[in-house]
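hiii, so i know i said id send this last week but things got crazy w the move. better late than never?? heres the sequnce for the chain we talked about at the cafe, plus the structure i predicted for it. fair warning i was half asleep when i ran it
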Amino acid sequence: MKRSMVHTATAVAALAAIALVFTGCSSSSKTSAPPATKPPAAPAPTTTTTEGAGQSAQLQVLTGTATGTSPCELAAPTPASPGEVGGGGGGSATNASKVSVLVSEHGARGMVKQQNLTEAQQMELDQQMTEAGAAAARYPTVATALAAGYQDSTTYVPCIGAHYTNEAYAASFDPSHPSELLYDGTQPDSKLVGLSYLVYHPGGTPPPGFAGPNDHWHQHNANGGLCLKGGYVVGGEADTPAQCAAAGGHKALLLDIWMLHAWVVPGYECTWGVFSGECPQLGGRLGGNAFDPPAPDAATSKAAASG
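okay and structure toks below
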């Protein structure tokens, strides 16, 4: 789809920058360490409920699936954005304060209970997942993404990855053409870990996506939105306007921008679900890669979050 079809200058400015983040611009070389081990199997029955972004159904976040010991949680004890956890509803609250952003982030982390599909939905989803898997196979490294016209829009973020965006695919949802690719670092040989479908869709509701009720789309509009510098995210929703300005950016609401992750890459079948906002297997360090040890302040952040 041609770039000119992406609606208005507002959409164009937003489309290159949609990921989560307290961004620093540093990066480091990837080590040869194997992928992080999966967290222990989680208990199933106990749940809490949260409202999904733009959706009327109550979502059940399974208590115990966020164990506190996964690589993601050790690297980022507080999620980067309320839009990434649970059903993503926290990312739609444009007037949420910094405190409420942090509270909503911490409270909804984990796996959302999956709902049953009809036979027709399952058949359609199977086809869509085949198409998504084929798309993932085309971009195994950052070098292949850059060669195909994707551009970096965030540094590496634990639990999610480094985002590489192609605005040309953001006008509508197409499982064969994800508008963002997620990598385990920012070096040319960094490996693909997942897909992200970033779609411009006005009207206040998520765009059509994967078949069935389990693809919970999210936004990043809490507390005035992300901090953008050109087409790059340099700060998260919890940042104040002053903090954002100090980073050289400006706070921006992306009211018609919706995002959905799809963890379809072999080896990163994330245990919180194929459409989870976060992948618990992705640890590492902000601005580095998935194989770095957590940042020295991660333990301090974890203690503060649990206190």
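btw The chain has one domain: 3-306. thought thatd interest u
miss u guys!!
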